[in-house]
Design a protein that fits this description.
Oligomer: single chain
Radius of gyration: 15 Å
CATH topology: Rossmann fold
CATH superfamily: DNA polymerase III subunit chi
Strand order of the largest sheet: 3-4-2-5-6-1-7-8
Distance between the termini: 9 Å
Shape: globular
Strand content: 25-35%
Order of helices and strands: EHEHEEEHEHEE
CATH class: Alpha Beta
Structural class: alpha/beta
Number of helices: 4
CATH architecture: 3-Layer(aba) Sandwich
Length: 155
């Protein structure tokens, strides 16, 4: 049974934090689906990940190609699972369900703490998952380092 980790971004933009988390997920041997809400934004993220440091290369692809099933990291706007992901990273308010969390090793929900709409959406998602009995942790980088601020369920 998996858990959802909420990441409250206040210092670094989503692409920087996402790259760090993707590196950790790949280090754990997980296949990852990065789920967003806008195809244009996912294409932007695709470009950003290709421009990363050579020593931190993250093999990935943008959903919709013939090799989706082969991608260790797949950028998508769909809830489908063509690459057999063990970890889903949600950005820009893309939703995840308690049932989905239970099937995965990890779900990461990244949200911009400087954006009231994103903050409220994340709060709503936290409450819905908590009410459904999902295990979740809330992490903040407000102090300059990532610190766990809250936990619900059994992680």
């Amino acid at each position: 049974m998996g858990a959802a980790y909420f990441y409250h971004l206040t210092r670094n933009p989503v692409d920087v934090t996402l790259a760090m988390l993707l590196g950790k997920a790949r280090g754990a041997g997980w296949r990852v689906a990065v789920r967003g809400t806008d195809h244009g934004r996912m294409a932007w993220l695709d470009e950003k990940l290709w421009m990363g440091a050579d020593d931190a290369f993250l093999p990935h692809g943008l959903a919709g190609g013939p090799q989706d099933a082969d991608q260790p990291i797949l950028l998508t706007t769909s809830g489908d699972d063509p690459n057999g992901a063990q970890c889903v990273m949600s950005i820009d308010g893309a939703t995840v369900s308690a049932e989905e969390i239970a099937k995965l090793d990890r779900v990461c929900v990244l949200f911009d703490g400087n954006d009231d709409e994103a903050l409220n959406a994340a709060r709503g998602q936290w409450k819905a998952l908590k009410d459904a009995g999902a295990a979740a942790q809330y992490w903040s980088e407000e102090s300059g380092r990532w610190a766990k601020k809250a936990e619900t369920g059994s992680v």
